[in-house]
């Protein structure tokens, strides 16, 4: 009898949906037993999904597909909202999930904390640890009494380490708050190193933490406290790490760390520094917070009046929304926020679109295409990595793809991220993958017209505004800004980077650049054209504009505009590259060279030659095992690589050590050194310098003073450089469309 009733209800619902096949409605005050009509909406994303699944089980999708209209309000996910193969649309019948017109919808992985639950701190022991000003302003709330018991754990993460979900975080009026730290701004320099600890990069797996002297007496206050963490760059300015403190010796003024950093710990350079955090005593400024995990009490100094403010904490470690095998699905106009892991995860499917969404305040990546990797090797490592692909987590993706450069991460094809805003993320903004590097089949996945900023709250160097791998994907018309680290990090082949606006990145890191690729000569066919790169770099660091690192080949740099780049190693920098073509670009007021080419295998990199080219060398493995340059498709597509591993001098020199066929041609250069090309390391540092024009004067811009770098038709450039093509400066960056209604102009002090 009960079974008959259930069947009758489902049949009735199905008939109702059939009558309203193109529209299903969700509302915060709906009921999941409803039929999903406008008058009787369901209450959750899952309920709407299940109605569509049932409809599809007995009907064909109607022409034009089905639209799920989501009413205003907040929808908290205690588990990921998953769309799989059962939830796909069809080419002429997509499934569209969108907000009702002009309504704001937030899908979260967190929980709102009512402002009236916060009270003044009365515990004398706690007040004693706070400064007088903090004691007057810090409030507290018992999270356990609100049903929140899982606070997560801070774990070691950083260069060559797994990306981990964040522990609980606090967000106030849609901004990420700061876990109590010292100093509030800037860093602490590492003092004299007593013991650098073990160095996993040299295959020392004895797992010894470093010992070093501290340079700030504030450390004395933290002695004896547990769960104090240091985050910084401990040896090199590109290798960030996050390490637990084992002990603080106030007599010797020494720190001992619990675990090693990949390269060990060093001092004396201005990027060898750290911040200390997760310390209640340092809760001394507005916006800082601390959770006492045993009691469950959150201590928080609100940056503004807490009444009627939005206070949220993150809960969900899984992706908030996950597309796993679904195709022809559009998700648009949503705000996806407040999770400990990924905002939107995409795997396998095709022809999906994430459009007009805001993804913010998540613990790892904003939008992430393709699988991550679980490391199985038991220690921090670089060369001995082992692991397996995993879904819904990032893990040690970088370690996996460093070893298996041909890895197909199952990101699907023809998927787009369009006109989205991604910011306040922990581990990069967007990660694009797709296509086959092994077979050189394009994925045709893309990020277009997206604004990506403030994307390194947790992980730093390897996690850029947009990462990309695979084959044949695209990043276009995006604006990427506000990071001490990199904007775009590249693996793979035949990607297109065009019409992007990249600025105010690599502001406080070393050996970094707005655009980076390196250490795999088979990563060819990448095109960088019509981008605006400006106000990047730090004159006190080793920065570059376009960084074609060790043994990069086959990059075309055409029609870009570079302005006020504080990159002492050029707009283009290469270590022993092949087939790097920089043509028809505009370089304005550089502080250094336009291009610098280094024969590094004959200078500082000489000792590493056997490890690169020898019998078991890294480059040899990448060119003959991960892919095979002597077989189709590589032998046909890239015949230039056929002699890369040929011996010149027996077991000492190989062809790939010597730069070849690099060209700097037809570029317009305003200011900077009289000789814009810098060759370093002797005769094997090679680049042809052909028909470039350098001047100290306005060459005929539409409006030099106001940064309109379109060239007037009567510009002298067209006579000084025959064949110079106009650069479409006004098309670079974001544009207005049905999802992006306006473009905010950002004003910086250095403008």
From TrEMBL:
InterPro entries recorded: Beta_helix, PbH1, Pectin_lyas_fold, Pectin_lyase_fold/virulence
PANTHER family: RIGHT HANDED BETA HELIX DOMAIN-CONTAINING PROTEIN, SECRETED PROTEIN-RELATED
Right handed beta helix domain segment(s): 321-453, 464-588
Protein name: Right handed beta helix domain-containing protein
Pfam families: Beta_helix
Domain of life, per lineage: Bacteria
